[in-house]
Amino acid sequence: MIRTAFTMLVFVIFTIICGLMGLTGALLNLRDGVGSVFDYAMRLWGTAAAWASGMKVVVHGRENLEGAQHIIVSNHMSQHDIFVLASVLKNLKFVAKNELARVPFFGRAAASVGTIYIERQNRKSSFDSYRQAAEKIRAGACVVVFAEGSRGATYSLRPFKKGPFVLAVHVHAPIVPVVIHGTREVHPKGTIRVTAGTVDVHFLEPIQTEGLTYDDRNALAKTVYDRMAALLVAEYGVESPDWDPRRTPVAR
Which pTM was predicted? Predict the structure, then answer.
């Protein structure tokens, strides 16, 4: 419980510090991008939370992040996935569920550093959110989407939402599939307990989207899913069910 309490304390302190940095930067209309106050605030927040949690983050495939504009499509096991990515990526913007926007202070602070809120049950609103994401990508940001939509109980992949792939073919930005392993042991879904541990984050080879259209979204989603599933089998022996995007309803 000492680790849990310490992590929560550091999280609160650095959320306030980094949130105020972002809000001040937004108020002063400072520039965004790599090396900006918004970029620094996000990485400081993620690094502090990862350190307090006792996570040793091991990065694989960092060379696959060359170039500024990417859509990061990641699996999602734990709230600590956010800290992991925030600590290792530059100029990143998260796509997050709209409920977080209503959290006092946190919601506005996260928006100030570029978090894009999405209302999944409202199709028009969700696609408006992806248009915001497209603008940030064109400006050079790295946008992170948890394509499964929510946290899972096991490392086996679940069906992906379609929105990230519609976004990718719209802006023709490469997708970097990401597999995070170890955060479930650090902070499992449904608990507040935090346990120190090693977390591996695998950045896979980028998948180019230049020349693709809306009609290619299902094939693109399938390619990303299969590559992530193959990594989970090869590295951790985790099997994921076969998934056919054509049988999945249009989702955000």
Answer: 0.90
